[in-house]
Amino acid sequence: MKRTSRDIRTANRYAVLRHLIAKSPASRGELAESAGLSQATVATLVGELTALGLLVEVGFEESAGGRPRSLVAVDAAGGALVGVDVAETYVHAELFDLALGVVARAEEELRPGGSAPEEVVGRIAAAVRTAVESAAAADARRPPRVLGVGVTMPGQVDRERGVAVRAANFGWRDVPLTALLAERLPYPVHLDNPLRAATVAELWFGAARGRDDAVVINLGTGVGAGLALGGTLHRGVTNSAGEWGHTTLVLDGRPCSCGDAGCVEAYVGAPAIMRTLRELAPDSPLLTDDEQTATIGALGRAAAAGDPVALRVVRETARHLGAAVADLVNLLNPEVIVLSSWVAAALGTPLLAEVREAVARHALGSPFAATEIVLSPIPTDPVCLGAATFALEGVLSSPGPTGTTLTAHTT
Amino acid sequence: MKRTSRDIRTANRYAVLRHLIAKSPASRGELAESAGLSQATVATLVGELTALGLLVEVGFEESAGGRPRSLVAVDAAGGALVGVDVAETYVHAELFDLALGVVARAEEELRPGGSAPEEVVGRIAAAVRTAVESAAAADARRPPRVLGVGVTMPGQVDRERGVAVRAANFGWRDVPLTALLAERLPYPVHLDNPLRAATVAELWFGAARGRDDAVVINLGTGVGAGLALGGTLHRGVTNSAGEWGHTTLVLDGRPCSCGDAGCVEAYVGAPAIMRTLRELAPDSPLLTDDEQTATIGALGRAAAAGDPVALRVVRETARHLGAAVADLVNLLNPEVIVLSSWVAAALGTPLLAEVREAVARHALGSPFAATEIVLSPIPTDPVCLGAATFALEGVLSSPGPTGTTLTAHTT
Q: What are the residue boundaries of the structural domains of chain B, listed by start?
C-alpha cells in the first residue's frame, strides 16, 4: 500500500515514456497533461530520461501566441530491449528498439514434455545471442545497446528473486532462472509469467490501451486471465493472480491437470477442445494429427469454411468459455475483455461470435452492456512484447543519472 | 486512469485522516511516513483538515534530541456522519463522531417484498432524524454538526447521479434516491451499495486493514464479493464489480434469482441454504418457521450444538461456498478473505472450519498458502460504518477552506 518516493518516480517515468512510445514527439505540456503531473515534475523526468539515453530533443513547435515549445521524442535507436517467450516446445526471442518496434527475431526448439533447466537456459541464451547478432549485422555502425532482457516462464514465478517457483509442464520447482541466465548473458534479466506479459502488451499497445479495467484471456494449452485493474497490472499478494483457468465452472466435472475437477481449463484449453472433438466425432479427419497446434489450426480453418462438426466443437467450447467469461464480467465489471494467444487466433471470428452470444446469456445486463469482447489486435507475439516492457520497467527503476546509472552493453 | 490534482488531494487527505482515525494523536512526521508523502505536503493537508474542523492540535511530544514535535488528532466531536443501511425488511441508521465511534442508532421497519420509493425515502429520513435527535439529547450543549449522510441501497447503484438503477428485491428501476432524500434531509447525501460499504469498513477498521488485496464476502439473502485491490475499492467501469454471487459454479445447475442457472448464490444465499435443509431433511423441526433470519439463526445454533442435520446442511453449503471462495483465491490471489453479513455471523465457526477445508481442496497450493480466511471482526453493522465513511469521503472531496467550504448543519 505504501509507495516510496522511488516507486512514485519510477511510475512517473513510466507514464511519460509510455505516452511518448505511443506518440512521439510531444511537448512537455502535453506530457504533463497526459500523465496528470506538474510541468516542473515533467521537466525533471524528461531531463532524467534524456540523461539515461532514452529521449532526445527533436526541435520546436510554434505555439499559439507564445514562444515556440520544444519537443521531445523517444530515441528509438538509443537502446535495445529483448523479450523472450519460453513455452513447452519453443523459445522465442525478439529484439526491440526503444520505441518497441521489432528489430530482430530468433527461435530455438525445445523437446516437449519436460526440458531440464540447463537445456532451457542454454536455448534462451542462444536465442538472445542470435537476435542481438542479427540486429548488429543489420546496422554495423550502431550495434544494439541492450539495456535489459525480459524472460517469461509459464507457471508460478517469483519475479523479485528471479525464480521459477513452479512450472508444471516442465516438472520444475524453485529453479533460480535469473541467476542461471546471469552466468550466460551480460545483460540484466527480468523474469515474469507470460500471462502478465501479454496483459502488459495489451495495456501499452493493444485493446486495453487507455482503459481502466481490462481482462486479457490467454487461450492456449493452459488458460489464464491477466487482470489490468485501475490502469495497472493486478499481481496479487504472491504474483499469482489470474489463475482463472483453475476456477470451477462445473462442480465435480471433467478432471483437470491441476488435480481438481470441473475447472475452466478442462473445457476450453487446447487439450480439452481436442477431447470435445473426440467426444463429438471420434472419426473426424481433423483428428488424424494428434498434435495440438496442427489440430486446433485445422479445426479453425474447418469452422471458418462452415464444416458442421468443427462448428459444433467451436459452439460447445464457446458455451463453456462464454459462461466463464461472464463470470469475469460479473465479478470485475471490466471495460474490455481480450481473447489472446494461439487458440484464440486459430479459432478466430467463429469463436468470438459464439462466445459473445454465450456471455450474453450468462452475464448481468448492466455490466455486460459496458464490456467489449474482442480478439487481440497485436500483430506480433504479445508475450515477447510484454517481456520487453518488463525489461524497460527495470531500466526505469534504475537509480538514474546521478547514481551509478544503467550499465550499457554492446556486442 | 488520469487522476486530477483534486483527486490526488482528496486521496492524500483521506490517507492522513485514515491514519489518525486508526491512531490519534500523531506527529506530522509519522503521518508523512505512513502516507508516503513529504512533510511539506502533510503540513498543508493538516492545515486544510484543521480548517475544515476535522483535526485539532493536541500538544507536544518530546523528540530525541530535537525540538518537541506538535501532535494532531481527529476532533471526534468536531462533526458527525450518518450511515444508513437499507435492506428489504429494515432501515438501520447509525450516527458516528469523526473518530467513527457510534453515538446514536435508529431503526425503521420495511414491509418485505417491495416497498415503494416514497415509503423507503420516508423511513430513511425518519431514521436519520431519530438518530440525530437522540445524539442531540445526549449532549445538549453541543448538538451534532452533521457533515453528511451515506446511504446504501442493494442492487445496482449509480453513485455519481445518486440513482438506484436496479433494486431487484424492491422492484425498482432508476429511482433518483439522492434527489428524493434531498427534499427531506438538510444534509449532503451519498448513495452506494452495501457490498462496497462493508468492504470499505473492513479496509478501514476490520480484517482488511493494512492489506493490499482483500475480498469481503457478503453472505445474506443475496451474495456478493467486495474487492479491495491495491489498497482501494475496485468498483469496475460501471460501479457494479463484485457480483460473485452470479458467477457460475455448476453449469446448468439450480435456477437462480437472476434468471441464470448454477450461480454461487443459488447454493449459498439464505434461501438456497433453506432449500438445502428442505432437500436433506424435509421434516426438520428447524423448518417450522419459514422466515429466513429465524431459520438460519436456528440452524447456526443447532450446528454449534452438534445437531447432525444442521451439520450436514453447513457442510453441503460449505462444499459449494469453498469451491467458489477458491475461485477468488485462484483468480485474485488476495491476502485475506473475510466472511461478512448475517448468514456468516449466524453460521459462524462451524461454517468457517468447513469452508477452509473445502477451499484447500479446490485452490492452488501457492495462492492458498498466502490467503487467510476469517469471519468479519467488526462488532457493529459494517454497512452503516462503511456508508458513514462514504459520507466522510464526500466531505474530504469538498473544495476546502479557501473555497465555499463545507456546509455544517446542526439540529
A: 5-74, 78-197+383-410, 209-377
